Amino acid sequence: DAGVTQSPTHLIKTRGQQVTLRCSPKSGHDTVSWYQQALGQGPQFIFQYYEEEERQRGNFPDRFSGHQFPNYSSELNVNALLLGDSALYLCASSLAVGQGRNEQFFGPGTRLTVL
Amino acid sequence: AQKVTQAQTEISVVEKEDVTLDCVYETRDTTYYLFWYKQPPSGELVFLIRRNSFDEQNEISGRYSWNFQKSTSSFNFTITASQVVDSAVYFCALRMSNNAGNMLTFGGGTRLMVKP
């Protein structure tokens, strides 16, 4: 049973560029959440997707956008990159609320470095 | 608003010592869930435990135990007879029961170093 997978593992971009990160949820999961984890800090919730729509959003600017596909996989897009966007981006999958145990299972993350 | 505080940023112990990681949370909700995750150097967050706010029973799983006290808004985690493999960053997290999704609010983490 494959867990949550993310690609790429590492990414280096320059300020002003755009980036797309990808996530495939754990088999059987229909909800994908994205978190940003700056060095030495706890993860911060960016947003969550369910049924191909953004269901919940944290305190992040519109430069951060996402998408969920019919197969439940998801993309995180960040436009106009800033140095402060350098972080580990974690994807987590779960079952929708109300459907049994809904712990979030995390992927290994994508480490983004903005120069 | 909800908040999770892990006051201990770093703890260093010698193998076989017991260690307790503290977690204090703030929420106005009466129903919520608390979690602990482990983050090894590989980066992936590993789920350890979930507790419901209405269940204050302490839990033990092998060398791990959790002490949940609503009166002090604390959910502390103890590792008995620590091992080098326990070295990691540990996060406490909070989730409301009434939000539309299942967003987790994390604490800042505690880095545990277990020396041989």
Topology:
The complex is a heterodimer of chains A (115) and B (116).
Chain A: E1 5-7, E2 10-13, E3 19-24, E4 31-37, E5 44-50, E6 53-57, E7 64-68, E8 74-78, E9 87-94, E10 105-106, E11 110-114
Parallel strand pairs in A: 2-11
Antiparallel strand pairs in A: 1-3, 3-8, 4-5, 4-9, 5-6, 7-8, 9-10, 9-11
Chain B: E1 3-5, E2 10-14, E3 19-21, E4 24-26, E5 32-39, E6 46-52, E7 59-61, E8 64-69, E9 74-79, E10 88-96, E11 105-106, E12 110-115
Description:
The complex is a heterodimer of chains A (115) and B (116). Chain A has 115 residues and is mainly β. Chain A contains no helices and eleven strands. In chain A, strand 7 (64-68) and strand 8 (74-78) form a beta hairpin. The model of chain A has no long low-confidence stretch (mean pLDDT 93). Chain B contains no helices and twelve strands. Chain B has strands at 3-5, 10-14, 19-21, 24-26, 32-39, 46-52, 59-61, 64-69, 74-79, 88-96, 105-106, 110-115.
Q: What is the radius of gyration of chain A?
A: 13 Å
Distance between the termini of chain B: 41 Å
Q: In one word, what is the shape of chain B? A: globular
Q: Tell me which protein chains meet in the greatest interface and how many residues each side has.
A: A-B, 29 and 24 residues
